[in-house]
Amino acid sequence: DAKTTQPPSMDCAEGRAANLPCNHSTISGNEYVYWYRQIHSQGPQYIIHGLKNNETNEMASLIITEDRKSSTLILPHATLRDTAVYYCITTGANNLFFGTGTRLTVIP
Amino acid sequence: EAGVVQSPRYKIIEKKQPVAFWCNPISGHNTLYWYLQNLGQGPELLIRYENEEAVDDSQLPKDRFSAERLKGVDSTLKIQPAELGDSAVYLCASSITGAVGETQYFGPGTRLLVL
Lengths: 108, 115
Hints:
Chain A is mainly β. Chain A has strands at residues 9-13, 18-23, 32-38, 45-50, 55-56, 61-64, 70-75, 84-91, 102-107. Chain A is built from no helices and nine strands.
């Protein structure tokens, strides 16, 4: 499975869009890009995933570059409840390999 | 729909004692995962079950850790004897079939402290 690189921490103002980057330059053609988040003292929560195309759901949007070497998770209107650690994961198997993620802090 | 249930939520034991964690996956989910999460790190897979069969236990320290999933539903993870370094959060997750691209649903975890 390809490894991912994420900034260790980011801040975002409440109500603004949060853009979380992820580099996965060694991703293989059959590997998906997943995003999970983990709010303090809870288990990880699925956000979104994609293979090649950009994806959007009720929680977020996922933008994958054309060469698939990087992606961005977008939370369109961040709230205080979005404060969490966000994990970017790439895998072509049914196992998830979490890194250390990005700690997003939404500031009032 | 009920989520993944884990118990206990917290456990404090002395080293060399045994401990067990229980997980009830989402109804109808055939695949069950146990993860270990150390402080400040992301979860790491310990074992994956498809129904009652352990299909990936390569990361499970088999000298002291054991797991079972009788009847392909509930699962128990056991540590015997526990060591100080086992202090961590133990997470259980489930998915419908375990296929690639399928969402995993996590429970709240059991926080273990070994003294």
